[in-house]
Design brief:
The longest helix has 22 residues. Helix 1 packs across helix 8, helix 5 packs parallel to helix 6 and helix 7 crosses helix 9. The chain has 11 helices and 13 strands. The chain is of the alpha/beta class. It has a 7-stranded parallel β-sheet with strand order 3-2-1-4-5-6-11, with helices on both faces. A two-stranded parallel sheet has the order 7-10. It has a two-stranded parallel sheet with strand order 8-13.
């Protein structure tokens, strides 16, 4: 199989590309290497892929409408996995146009390219943030999600709607994956686990929002990767029981599906910090703050549909995942310091 993986220099994109190569697939990685966070980290991730048999990297931006037709004509991709997006809830409060360009303009360009080049399946990253103001737990793909609380969340909800339109009009098979707080080696430096680890090692205080009364369905990267690949292997078909009288948001008459990928075991933020302190052998200096705009107090994934359809349920315990992250971080940060001494 030949895959296009967008966002291949990103956290999830690098891991997914590597797993596809491990099983013998061909991968074209596509990324614009934007400076939202360290470009060097992105290049370091790419260096784990470049040179491997079956991998090719193309630098470019999904918002560049002229670039994609040539890429798709040359690539003849069987499956597209779209992991490219402007990420970050808080960043969307101050830089809204970045989300429109990447998450909306870029996504419609990708849909058009898939439509015109006979792609068999488009799998794309959505987000648990689409649940927004919902409070019914666990979050189910069958719940209504019409009340996002950040522009980032709104763009992810828009991606699901745009994908459905193409599935309905053009029979393009699409599957959206709502990721729940992904963490692990090679993660993003703007995420809590990285920020906490860096600060604790430096003896600096960490910001604990909502006075620590946050719960997140932390999901280890290996579980995310397995879920992405299993879902990508399963091309969706229409749901014959779908009814316009009682429309199911997760399915359609067209070849369209939505799944949660979460650990199904929400963890209190204070427990995450305690687990991290144990792994580092150091105690954090905590600065308790109110909840920030755009955040939600809790996330909790219902993954029954994922388990039923692809036979997979994330299961990595938080203690295991945090220990693996810390082990990687200590090596990577030391290597980065040697490369770039102060």
């Amino acid at each position: 199989m030949k895959y296009l993986v967008t966002g291949a220099a990103g956290f999830i994109g690098m891991h997914v590309s590597s797993a596809l190569l491990d099983r013998g697939d061909s991968v074209v990685g596509f990324d614009n290497l934007n400076p939202y966070y360290s470009v060097q980290l992105k290049r370091d991730r790419l260096n784990r892929l470049i040179g491997r048999a079956g991998f090719q990297f193309e630098e470019g931006d999904l918002a560049d409408r002229q670039r994609l037709p040539a890429l798709f004509s040359a690539g003849k991709f069987d499956v597209v996995i779209n992991l490219a997006a402007q990420a970050g809830v808080r960043y969307s409060l101050t830089n809204p146009h970045a989300y429109v360009d990447s998450n909306l303009v870029g996504f419609v360009n990708l849909l058009e390219a898939c439509r015109h080049h006979d792609v068999k399946h488009l799998t794309y990253a959505s987000s648990s943030s689409v649940y927004g103001a919902n409070t019914e737990m666990p979050f189910s793909v069958h719940h209504n999600v019409d009340h996002p609380v950040s522009l980032y969340a709104a763009t992810k909800k828009a991606n699901e709607l745009m994908a459905h339109t193409y599935s309905h009009l053009y029979r393009l098979p699409t599957t959206g994956l709502r990721f729940f707080t992904v963490y692990g080696p090679w993660g993003r430096p703007d995420m809590a686990l990285w920020l906490f680890t860096k600060a604790i090692l430096a003896g600096e205080s960490i910001d604990v929002f909502n006075n620590g009364q946050m719960r997140r369905d932390f999901t280890y990267i290996d579980d995310i990767v397995q879920g992405v690949i299993r879902v990508s292997d399963r091309i969706p078909t229409g749901n014959p029981e779908w009814s316009g009288d009682k429309p199911d948001p997760a399915t359609s008459r067209g070849p369209y599906r939505i799944y949660n990928i979460g650990n199904n075991q929400p963890v209190e933020l204070m427990h995450l910090i305690e687990t991290l302190e144990q792994a580092l052998g150091k105690t954090a200096v905590k600065r308790f703050l109110p909840m920030q705009a755009g955040d939600v107090p809790a996330t909790y994934a219902d993954v029954d549909d994922l388990t039923r359809d692809v036979g997979f349920r994330p299961s990595t315990p938080i203690q295991t995942g945090v220990a693996r992250f810390v082990e990687w971080y200590l090596v990577y940060s030391h290597t980065a310091e040697r490369k770039n001494p102060a």
